[in-house]
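Aim 2 progress update. The chain analyzed this quarter is reproduced below.
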Amino acid sequence: MLTPAIITRRDDLDADAVILRLRARGCLPIRINWEDIYEDAAFSLRLSNEGAPSGRVATDRRQIDVDQIKAAYWRPTLLELPAHESPDGAYIRGEIDGAWTALYRLLDCTWFNRPAAVQSSGCILKRLDRAKAAGFQIPETLISDDPRQLVEFCRAAGGRVVVRPVRLGPIALVANEGRSLLPHWIRSALVTLEELSANVDQLGQSPSILQRYVTGRKVIKVAIVKERLFAAAFTFERGANPLPAAVDLSASGHPQEINLPSTAEKACRALASELGFNYAIVTLVESEAEGLYLIDIDPNASFLWLERVFPQFQIGARLAEELASS
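Predicted structure tokens:
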């Protein structure tokens, strides 16, 4: 019996939704939580000169043969690490991470999305570079560990910029009374020149990515599930565009299902294909003066809020269909 694998965390509503839809189709997936690989989950894998790799994956609920996995839904996540981990503990954690990563890379299956594809596109610079090649306009972007250049970029951009993390999950958060000890923002945020200048001592510790803040009354979300594409526009009052802080745009923007212009649809499909994404959500902003800008293409984005606004999209059901039929 072929079994889809859902590789996620214990608290993931998107994964829960896909699993429910798989079960409704009579398909029982195996769920591998990131937290469990350090506790209950285990696997064995054997390579030989004859045949494909063989082995078993076990969680606290079930065991399956590796060759039963023909489709996988991979959800990178934020992990919380112990505040004071010993060198031995850090070494063991690294060995566990490396072993499971090797297993995922050897699986002969259809991925949503292949870990190597997500990891190789983890920095937004690659995604923006490919977006430009696909025909999109992109916001002017700077990566630097020179605080003077970062502050000057923000000043030249009008005193407001979007700061972005360099890497796209999984990112380890250090547990310390609920706070992150990382010196930089781990999620995209809109910051002012005053806020940037107040953190100038931290800016040189590691590179930061800043983008010109693209304003516009219309934000377009495009969900891609393999060959299927779903597009929606959210129109805001002038100056009320909530990007990048808001994930769910339905609370403040007027939603409408749309048909993308053929050139934009073709560019979205080409970009996802170039990056190796079978699933992604594209964010576009329609600037009143400058036209359509691609803000990001995110292979980890949640689809649930978009599906709640547009139940006809059935994005979770499409994912389940593809996982069950691969």
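Residues 169-184 have pLDDT under 50 and may be disordered. The two ends are 13 Å apart (CA to CA). These observations will guide the mutagenesis experiments scheduled for the next reporting period.
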